[in-house]
Amino acid sequence: MNKFKKFVQLVGLFFLFALPFLYLLFFYFQPLFATFEMAFQATVIEKISTSWNLIKRPIYFTFWQASLSTILTGIIGFPAAFMLAKFRFWGKSFLRLLITIPFIMPTVVVAAGFNALLGSKGWINLLLQSLFSLDHAPLQIMNTLGAILLAHVFYNSTVFIRVVSGAWSQLDPKLDYAAQSLGSPPWKVWLQITLPLLKPAIFSAIILVFLFNFTSFAVILLLGGPKFSTIEVEIYVQALQLFNLPLAGLLSAIQLLFTLVLSILNMRLTHIKTVQLTPRNPDVIVQPVRGWKQHLFVISMNALLIGLFVLPLLALLFRSVILIETKLVSQEITNYYRFSLIYYQELFLNRRQSLFYVPPVAAILNSLYFGFITVGIALLLGFLAARIISIRNFLGKILDPVLMLPLGTSAVTLGLGFVLVFNKPPLEVNTFPLLIPVAHSLVAIPFVVRILQPALLSFPKELIFASQTMGASSWRSFWRIEFPIISRAFISAALFAFTISMGEFGATTFLARPEYPTIPIAIYRYLSQPGGLNYGQAMAMSTILMIICTLSIYSIEKLKTPVINEF
Amino acid sequence: MQNQLTVKNLFKKYENKPLLAGVSFTVKEGETICLLGRSGSGKSTILRIIAGIEQPESGEVFWNQQNMKDIPVHQRNFGFMFQDYALFPHMNVFENVAFGLRMQNLPAETIREKVDAILRKVKMEQFSHRNVQDLSGGEQQRVALARAFAPEPKLMMLDEPLGALDRTLKEQLMDEIRFILHESNIPAIYVTHDQEEAFTIADRLVLLHDGQVVQDAPPEEIYLYPHSSWVAEFLGLSNLMVGKILSVEPLWVETPLGNLKIERQKVNRLQTGDSVTVLLRPDSLMIDDKEINVFPVKIKDQIYLGDQWKVKMMIGQYDFIFYTSAALKSTNFQHVSLNPKKINIFLDAK
Amino acid sequence: MKFLKPIIIFSCLTIILVACSSGGNQSKTSSEKQSHVLTVMTHDSFAVSENLITKFESENNAKIKFILSGDAGTALNRAILTKNSPQADIFFGLDNTFLSRALSEGIFEPYQSPIIPDLTPSLLLDQSYRALPVDYGDVCINYDKLFFEKNKLRIPSSFNDLPLPEYKGLLVVENPATSSPGLAFLMATIGEFGEDGYLDYWKSLSENGLVVVNDWETAYYTNFSGSSGRGAQPMVVSYGSSPPAEVIFAETELLDAPTASITAPNMCFRQIEFVGILKGTKERELAEKFIDFMLDIPFQEDVPLQMFVFPANKNASLPVQFEKYAQIPAQPALLNPELISQNREKWIQDWTVIVLR
Q: Which tens digit of pLDDT belongs to each residue from C136-187?
């Protein structure tokens, strides 16, 4: 009986650990190969030589803008991460939440928000114009490389900040004090202690952000404009507008190759031993702001972050409750502003009895529904994968870079692949709505792994041993000891998975079904028609999206654990 | 002129409740004092203030005559050994210990010599190139000790260094720490809540309670002459009861047991009628009958401890615990005599 | 301790949900074996009144399922990719710029609907009736009336006006590589200037402060001054149906449309939308009925207010606002679909070199 039980346990364990591999094979590699098969029906070599001239510009530019964006994100993200990890100040958790919201907003509305702020008739230009009595807008940032970089920083800073500040707040402040008591001035403590210990997290964050910038699509398309083309944009144009699948496939393969290189690089770089965690009172880590230098830092950092992240979102909110009427008054075009909730009211009406009318509540529920399923899948598989990787054997070394591949795969490639492969019941794209969370989870899982992995790796072995000598089985030891400590990591990972799902738009286009509209799709429908009510409803829907996400993230973060109090 | 650290009148609040309410003491060269008190009594905070990691709301720290207020942590040259070792996880044993020496910009050869020497002293010379995360608790402890001592600090502070270790390891390391501290001859402050550790290591105990120093004296003195009932209780002297002074010379105190004659006090602020707390010392039981302080007792239990007997008894309505060299005759009622030289009085009435 | 349990439970629930929902779907289709299911693949901008579909479903004892698949190009791509195992019975949303491509891929089965005689003849580009016209829209330059009035500008009356200095920096167009109206406008210029002359024309536009963006949403809502975006350019390449839409979707009652189209000869490009029965369909009979339904008056009269295009059926009447504010060009530009199919890529590339580099 005992042997049988053990056998069942082993089989169960084997299946559990094989799960991430099987999942990837089925839901990622299968569609990928289907797309490539379609694409490479002409000879590959011939294609490369003829197409090189066409594609070398997008390839160079992709790297160029991704690198610049990542550097800028790091420059802003690093001090922000420092501030959030080290200091306690009024409005801190709200600020952290606000920084996450951009990630979720569809680029279509972000473009509108940016334009409201930075466009040639935007608030900032108007302000500058009136301040300095200029006759035309001094800031021409839309449709330039600047707009692309700004948007990338806007979107991806939260990734960098969360990864780095998460690791930072796990750093034992006693290490700092120890170093200082041994004669090390603060700047040397940074160099010798803090930075080396943060290196794995920083590298991880940089590579993740780079991958996002690398595969960025809507930002390049909408905020950069036609002068800019990246690999992802080219794939879209070639595949879907010009029906040139072989070239699209080639570009996709190149993109994938670079992603593989980057993820192997990431694995190598984060091989450095990580910090030992001991359960500690977070009050020890977080300190109140003291002294004018610290106050200046915190205040200016807050101002910068609010200016960067909150203002464009506020612009959207503003536009959703303000009605503008333009009249020609004595030869001057004057705008009249009036507060109005008409756009929100209109959202709930289906004036034209359209079949595809998206009731806001349904859209919200669908988005949330998909979001939570994505979280469930991503947490489960991500945890298993993180476990496998932390064992550091041959399997782990393969799984680690392979997991990152979906991050660097074009949404077009993946979407087309899904359509090609999943066309028979029950896993039919047309009838199986859960393919959407599956697609989302492919992007979310590497994040979950990245966030859980350091927590799992750096778990002090003594604590597990102690529990084992007391006779607890390994399962129970996990529940009672390992889990509360890494539960914060779990919450952080759940958050990521949730935000990724809410904000994913590319692959969802292929897989969406009209019976399960999500908020981004609804927004896009409104913006594809002219008319004030349509525009306003898109703004209103975006604001609703912002509020829903804020509330969801807030409630996820509020899950408190006995050991760890507040982030 | 000897080197000394002076702590004057430290005040500090924690979450709006007072933590330190006027703490003062000194430590001299060659002295090891122990800050002893319950968990949360602010002992670690005092160390951190001395180190410069935290700032008091008021009060000062002096090294000799110099006020440490504006001197940053890294310039104080006060050694600190942390509770959970705080070893640098990305460095090996050698690099950890060498850290302080590197900060002094010493040449590499000198550093190597000094590190090897101190590792030998803590018996860790075999582990020089091991990664600190692979070490056991006791081994990490020694490395932390070596690291703190290596740069030859002016003062050494140890914050519950033996807290996480098991009994045998504790005892072993306690001896080693005591040896190293005395050998180095620098002033040292040792923080613990464990009374036994304190008694083993310290030349002088500084007892903390309610944010203040309630007694500052060598262990023996504190044990024989605790200043208050709190100190007595903390030290495990539990035979306490209330009393009222009947007369001062000779000293007679009225207690629930009866009237006690007391012959030991240096306390000269007593007045007739004062309410006091009376402590019957554990060795105040006199078996061979004397005529003084005789009371009927009921013996509840006698436990043989090898070198003495632990006797639980009732005198009147109260339970007491005494230690004697021989068992008492185990008839139900006996009379015992309490040695008037082994009874303490405290001016705080419970 | 508190959280992994709920997460594991949640994930198990997910898996159960997964199994159930697919099972559920199968049971649904099996219970509807009496009625047939017609699958219509189309693009994201498709819209129709709910009651029309319900009526069709009940009259034909059928259920219609729609697959909305991205923009027109994306949707067509999908249909072509899956032509060997078609995922739908009907494809709607093919426009004349893609027509030739779709026909050459052979994704349709011909159907000679009885309503064909009622359709405007110039729209019947496929004489083999594989793709039938359902609606058309004209891609025209829209202009902001207030701006032109304030600055006392003359409304351009031909292509040759646009490169004039008084219109410097006032026009925003979309990238033909990424936008359907952008491509349409490009082809209008090819129609006007011919393949030898259009590039020079674009050069002159480019030198006159032409603004190019990637998609219609950006052009209309970010750059155009006559929309809610209050942008910088008072002229945008949009649709002839955009001005009526501005009236219909205005927050308050408007007395007049705030924008209008430039409908001078050859300046608008006619985009025709086609529908076709996908080859390999198992619901041929029902598909034919649906095509008839789409070409018939009720649907055709529904089309303007749902999709903001014009009905192909010449007997269908237009809604009031359309009558009032839509300007239908007398001479729209039309290019041979074969020509488009062959040269599309080349035109776009040549254009890109001249305008964007």
A: 999 999 999 999 988 899 999 999 999 999 999 999 999 998 888 999 999 9
Q: b/e for B139-148, b at 16 or more Cβ within 10 A?
A: bbbbbbbbbb
Distance CA C233, CA C219 (A): 9
Name the band, by pLDDT with cuts 50, 70 and 90, for residue A275: very low
Q: Checking DSSP bridges between strand C211-213 and strand C171-174, what pairing results, if any? A: parallel
Alpha-helical segments (H) within A215-350: 218, 231-236, 245-269, 282-285, 291-305, 311-321, 342-347
The answer to whether A272 contacts chain B (CB < 8 Å) is: yes
How many separate domains does chain B show?
2
How confident is the model over C314-354, as pLDDT tens digits?
999 999 888 888 888 888 888 888 888 888 888 998 998 89
Q: Are residues B120 and B183 both part of a single domain? A: yes
- How many folded domains does chain A comprise? 1
Question: Which of C4, C141, C224, C278 to substitute to test the interface with A, most A CBs within 10 Å?
Answer: C4
> Of B207, B231, B255, which one is at a domain's C-terminal end?
B231
Quick one: C74 and C189 in the same domain? no
Tell me, yes or no, whether A379 lies in a domain: yes
| φ/ψ of residue C14, rounded to 5 | -55, -50
Does C15 reside within a domain?
Answer: no
Tell me whether chains A and C touch (3+ CB pairs under 8 A). Answer: yes
pTM greater than 0.80 (yes/no): yes
CA of A245 vs chain C CAs: smallest distance (Å): 10
DSSP codes of every residue in C94-139: EETTTHHHHHHHT-EE----TTGGGB-GGG---TTSSSEEEEEEEE
A142–C contact, CB cutoff 8 A: yes
Cα dihedral sign, C208-C213-C216-C219: negative
**Predicted ipTM?**
0.85
Between chains, do B90 and A196 touch, taking CB under 8 Å as contact? Answer: yes
Residues A545 and A547: their CA atoms lie apart, in Å, by 5
What is C244-257 written as a DSSP string?
A: HHHHHT-SS--SS-
Residues of chain A with Cβ-Cβ distance to B77 below 8 Å are: 183
Contact indicator for A204, A266 with CB cutoff of 8 Å:
yes
Domain identity same for C147 and C196: yes
Residue C4 lies in a domain: no
Asked which of A398-412, A458-472, B20-34, C230-244 is least confident by mean pLDDT, the reply is A458-472
